[in-house]
Amino acid sequence: MEYNHLIEFRNITKSFGNQVVLNNVNLTIDRGEITTIIGMSGVGKSVLLKHIIGLINPDSGEILFQGRDIAKLPRREKSQLKKKFSYMFQGTALFDSMTVYENIALPLMEKNLLSQNAIQRLVLDKMEQLDIGTMANKYPSELSGGMKKRVALARSLVTDPEIVLFDEPTTGLDPIRRNAVHSMISEYQKKLGFTGIIVSHEIPEIFYISQKIVMLHEGGIIFQGSAEALHETNATVVKQFINGLENRHDSLTGLLPQPRGEERLREELARFKRHNYVFSIIVFRIKDLDNINKNAGHVAGQELLRRFAEELRSHLRLTDVCFRYSMNKIITILPDTGLEQARQTCRKLSKKIDKMKITEIVSGSALECSINVGFAEAKKDLQFEHIIREAESNIEDTCFLSGMEEQ
């Protein structure tokens, strides 16, 4: 039987002493998606996460898994259900005295259900899937922060869970490695198909990989929906929270973050409709970023995006607006610029930017490093979503970093 939601909270309330932490919480989580829980510190995000995995029981209300109340399941079914979950701890929680292999194998060893050969096969397979196959005998002290995160992710996935919970997975990382971890979670979620639930303060970066955002405030859920719907909401508390956390510039690229960039695009569309001032947009997309992540590492992929953004920013006009649109896309708004002028601008950019500075991050490898571009010009009948969609649909398979061909 198919259920609408994988996990559902119905009127969940939880108190610790006189403090009500969760108050009549209603929440849905869908299979195969990444759901991110946001909110101020101390509002109960981690408590909510622990309810999902069964570490804390509610005072009242129901938690359903595939339509069945978990509290009413027979003990054996509850035990089987817990095997579907895994948890990536804040700060990785790797054991310094154990090798990478031993850390990843630990959940299987604790269950004591498999032979050593079966455990070895599962661990090595998972290490290969997460591109750490050569590190089995290393110790955590020998690994970078980003690599420790990858080992922690491998450990959380070695039991092939259906649901993985992440509690502040990027705490203490710099912008490049923070974005690299987000990229890693997104890539392997798509590759392995698990349902991800993340507690995070990394706004707006976390929105690039999330299908649903849930905001917790004063013990209750005050928003759940897509990142796009979050930015369009008129709820005062939500807007104040988001605006308070969002930087004026994207922490990785130095460009405007997606919400502020979209706001500028809407302003330009309104200006066009009032005064008929033409403008165009260019969508830049890193080609084969997944391949770069796999062969050169997620840090290299994010560093490539950062360097390209830096070069792009240094060669555009003062009136042009550049913003990060997703994990691998940048949008540039060119005021008072028609479609052919936008193409000419792109050709000039291709000649001006320092390609070696951008691509040296993957030099010496067999990887092709290129940027695809798409164009769209404002038209009377084009709405906000349509102009971006048109530019994305027109993305041309052009090796921007190797020099653009004449269009």
Explain this structure.
With 407 residues, this protein is α/β, with parallel strands linked by helices. The protein has 2 domains: 241 residues, 3-Layer(aba) Sandwich (Rossmann fold); 140 residues, Reverse transcriptase/Diguanylate cyclase domain (Alpha-Beta Plaits, 2-Layer Sandwich). Helix content is 40%, strand content 21%. The chain is built from 14 helices and 14 strands. The strands form 3 sheets. Strands 6-7-8-3-9-10 form a 6-stranded mixed sheet, with helices on both faces. It has a 4-stranded antiparallel sheet with strand order 2-1-4-5, with helices on one face. A hairpin with a 4-residue loop joins β12 and β13. The C terminus is likely disordered.
Salient structural properties:
407 residues, alpha/beta, 2 domains, 6-stranded mixed β-sheet, 4-stranded antiparallel β-sheet, 14 helices, 14 strands, 21% strand
SS strand fraction: 15-25%
CATH class type of the largest domain: Alpha Beta
CATH topology of the largest domain: Rossmann fold
One letter per element, helices H and strands E, the order comes to: EEEHEEHEHHHEHEEEHHHEHHEEHHEH
Envelope shape? globular
Task: Please give the count of helices.
Answer: 14
Major β-sheet annotation: 6 strands, mixed
Q: Runs with pLDDT <50, length 5+?
A: 402-407
User: Which secondary-structure class do the elements indicate?
Assistant: alpha/beta
Give the helix level as a range of percent: 40-55%
CATH superfamily of the largest domain: P-loop containing nucleotide triphosphate hydrolases
- What is the CA–CA distance across the termini? 53 Å
Average predicted confidence as pLDDT: 87
Domain tally? 2
Trace the largest sheet across and list its strands: 6-7-8-3-9-10
CA gyration radius, whole angstroms: 23 Å
Indicate the CATH architecture of the largest domain: 3-Layer(aba) Sandwich
The overall strand count is 14
